Amino acid sequence: MKKEIHKAINWNLPNHQFYDDIYIKQVEQFWLPEEIPVSDDKSVWDNLDSNIKETYERILAGLTLLDTEQTVGVTKLGDKTDNLFIKSILTLFAGFETIHARSYSTIFQTLCTSDRIDELFSWIENTKELQNKVSMIIKTYESIEDKESLFMSMVGSLCLEGICFYSGFFLPLWLSGQGKMVNSGEIINLILRDEKLHTVGVGFFAKDIYKDFSEDVKIKLREKALKMVYEVYLAELEYSKLLYKNLGLLDEVKTYLEFNVNYALSCIDFEPMFNVTENDVNSVVMNGYSTETKTHDFFSTKGNGYIKTTKVEDLTDEDFEFNF
Prior knowledge:
The chain is mostly helical. The protein has one domain (17-296): Ribonucleotide Reductase, subunit A (Orthogonal Bundle). It is built from 12 helices and no strands. The chain has helices at residues 17-28, 42-45, 50-79, 84-111, 114-126, 128-141, 147-164, 166-176, 182-210, 215-244, 250-266, 283-289. Helix 1 (17-28) runs parallel beside helix 4, helix 3 (50-79) crosses helix 5 and helix 8 packs antiparallel against helix 9 (182-210). It is globular and about 65 Å long. The termini are far apart.
């Protein structure tokens, strides 16, 4: 019986710059929800319209489910790849997904009673539109048998990171852009910054697998990937209808979703699916979508410029453009 050789990851190899870059960017972005003064939002919360409050609560509950599942999901992807750098980075991503899931509870503790929180977590389990879209992604994680199914699971993760979160992000960004729920919105902005990095990373990992297939297999997988992306988009749209039907924002949310579908596809070098650009997205929300580091004074919110390290340059959208 051949003895198994255990290998160690070598971060000093010169030909793995992308992995090093994305690792550094993720750790530079480290933050904790306890650093954000969410309690300052309580007076605003108490005066919000009841429909907005219910939608906001349900959004946070749904996002908690997505991050809970993704914490485990990305580690499953890592288990199935032989690339030690991808294993390491996906494990790092999983740690941040855990922070995200906890962050929503930090907001809940400030805004909601214990009984209301219990109701919301029951709502998660009984809302088929939410359960269905999560199931679509999870089944790709649970059926990895070869490189083709590994690629499709990466596309599934790309859908979760780059599409499924964004219906939930819309309302907090829309409110905080109007000076309402600013601190809770800052948490969402920090999460969004991480998810955008995860989208870029998983997209790169998917491309790395895809490039080695024959042309016939590439055509087949491209068709399957586009079909999956569109099905996830439709599921996300149904969930958005449930959330936003009473707020009159559905058309704007739909445009925002389509913009993010196009962005996710660009991360695997696929053509856009919809005729939508950032100029079509609600400008208030688009401003919150920007990953450019914000500047706040000492007495304001921590800001998504919060970092633990020193001598770190501000993060800009250009930092997500990698040329290899």
